[in-house]
Amino acid sequence: MRVSDFHYELPERLIAAEPPARRTDSRLLVLDGETGAVADRRFTDLRELLCPGDLLVLNDTRVLPARLLGHKDSGGAVEVLLERLLGGSEALAQLRVSKKPRAGSELVLEGGLAVTVVAREGDFFRLRFPDDAPLPVLLERHGHMPLPPYIRRPDTETDRERYQTVYARTPGAVAAPTAGLHFDRPLLEALRADGVRTESLTLHVGAGTFQPVRSETVEGHHMHAEWLSVPAAVCEAAADTRARGGRVIAVGTTVVRALETAARGGELAPFEGETDIFLYPGHRFRAIDGLITNFHLPESTLLMLVSAFGGRENVLAAYRHAVAAKYRFFSYGDAMFLCPPAPEARP
């Protein structure tokens, strides 16, 4: 399977650089995976599309202000984008710099924050921060929100709130689980009042989520690893939901990757650790019955995951409809709701 099989044309004007005025102002493209039919709705129409007894699974990761600016001790400018916290005062990071720093050298970041380069690890650098405060606290003081590279503007104070779900509570991500950005507290409360259950897991989204696929074939790509935790409460709620005839709906591709990792043994079970699971057409989904997601970049692993669930031809046709209908794309853009095709129709 070729990466180019997941290409589509997107005018740059449809890339959302700002969030909507209100979280729930987004549009919602509904794709019936069995028939390929699409419908143009509003995000608040989820109250009509979800049923009492359905389960929404949310990712409660919290985005860190993980982008830091400064210079090397030799004077060259440097941009630091954290990939993950390693415990204590150390973190793994990407560095944007003209000449890669040596182990033992120092980076001087905004606010006088002095950071030591410990070692290079593949495409990343292990950095040591001062230990006078917890690392998340230092990031809140000195960091910027790590907006995706296709949003070509500086971050603002507004992004501190809007590039974060209203249910974020576990710090560790360097990119938002963007499908959840459309929910506000009144909508969640209304859905619960309608009989829709919610449960949360954690997957800390890494900066690698924006890395392009460099191989020509899908099978030649290897995913970056991300840390996740699927608690027993999620597994029990999913089993109970299906036993009662309800649907397990993943809010975002990160939730799909977490649940499918936890179901690798055949049944959904509690899991904590790293995953590099890569979901593309041909995968048999074990843990979900529906998916709420944003629109994703052409030829990206996220588009491949959505295509695996909804059918490649169906999904690409839906994307062409979304372009023609001027939906807003990517992190601050509009959303899709997908139900899978019948098993025999899947690629």
TrEMBL record:
EC number assigned by the record: 2.4.99.17
Pathway(s) the chain acts in: tRNA modification; tRNA-queuosine biosynthesis
Record localization: Cytoplasm
Leader peptide range in chain numbering: none
EC top class named in words: transferase
Reactions mediated catalytically: 7-aminomethyl-7-carbaguanosine(34) in tRNA + S-adenosyl-L-methionine = epoxyqueuosine(34) in tRNA + adenine + L-methionine + 2 H(+)
InterPro entries: QueA (IPR003699), QueA_dom1 (IPR042118), QueA_dom2 (IPR042119), QueA_sf (IPR036100)
Any one biological process term the GO annotation gives: tRNA queuosine(34) biosynthetic process
GO MF entries: S-adenosylmethionine:tRNA ribosyltransferase-isomerase activity
Keywords carried by this UniProt record: Cytoplasm, Isomerase, Queuosine biosynthesis, S-adenosyl-L-methionine, Transferase
Keyword Isomerase applies: yes
PANTHER family with a match to the protein in the record: S-ADENOSYLMETHIONINE:TRNA RIBOSYLTRANSFERASE-ISOMERASE
Quaternary context: Monomer.
HAMAP family in UniProt: QueA
Function: Transfers and isomerizes the ribose moiety from AdoMet to the 7-aminomethyl group of 7-deazaguanine (preQ1-tRNA) to give epoxyqueuosine (oQ-tRNA).
Name of the protein described by the UniProt record: S-adenosylmethionine:tRNA ribosyltransferase-isomerase
The organism of origin for this protein: Sediminicurvatus halobius
Organism ancestry: Bacteria, Pseudomonadati, Pseudomonadota, Gammaproteobacteria, Chromatiales
Gene field: queA
